[in-house]
Amino acid sequence: MKPEDRLYVVRLVLSLIVGLASAILSISDYHWLLNVLMAGLIYVATLYLVPPLIRMERNKHPRRVLITSGLGTYIFVWLASWLLFFNAFS
Questions:
Q1: Which residues does 5 contact at the CB level (< 8 Å), separation at least 6?
Q2: Separation in Å, CA 40 to CA 10, 29, 75, 77, 78
Q3: For the whole model, what pTM was predicted?
Q4: Which of 50, 63, 70, 82 is in Cβ range 3.0-4.6 Å of 11 for a Cys bridge?
Q5: CB-side neighbour CA atoms (13 Å) of 81
Q6: Which residues contact 15 (CB under 8 A, 6 or more apart)?
Q7: Contact 9, 73 (CB under 8 A)
Q8: 3-state DSSP of the chain
Q9: In this structure, are residues 22 and 82 in contact, taking their beta carbons and an 8 Å threshold?
């Protein structure tokens, strides 16, 4: 599996986990903006923490690839899992 694919899969799994956490926070009456901020901060953290873990060399891959790989999927899966978990738990 190519490093870009591993990064994509890690972000996909993280979006499911963040969606679950967002649903739990929403049930606890936290403001929705906290969930958006949390999802954004975790995505930004993947820019710095994940590439060394999956042995992805930053010098070989342009910064644009690190930023955009899986961005749309992350947002969509996070929102979808947030809504599904929220409706399942309420």
A1: none
A2: 15, 20, 9, 13, 10
A3: 0.89
A4: 70
A5: 20
A6: 39, 73, 74, 75, 77, 78, 81
A7: no
A8: CCHHHHHHHHHHHHHHHHHHHHHHHHHCCCCHHHHHHHHHHHHHHHHHHHHHHCCCCCCCCCHHHHHHCCHHHHHHHHHHHHHHHHHHHC
A9: yes
Which amino acid is located at 32 in the chain?
W
Note down pLDDT in tens along the chain; length 90 residues: 888 888 899 999 999 999 999 999 999 888 889 999 999 999 999 988 888 888 877 777 788 888 888 899 999 999 999 999 999 998
Residue showing tokens 């738990």: 89
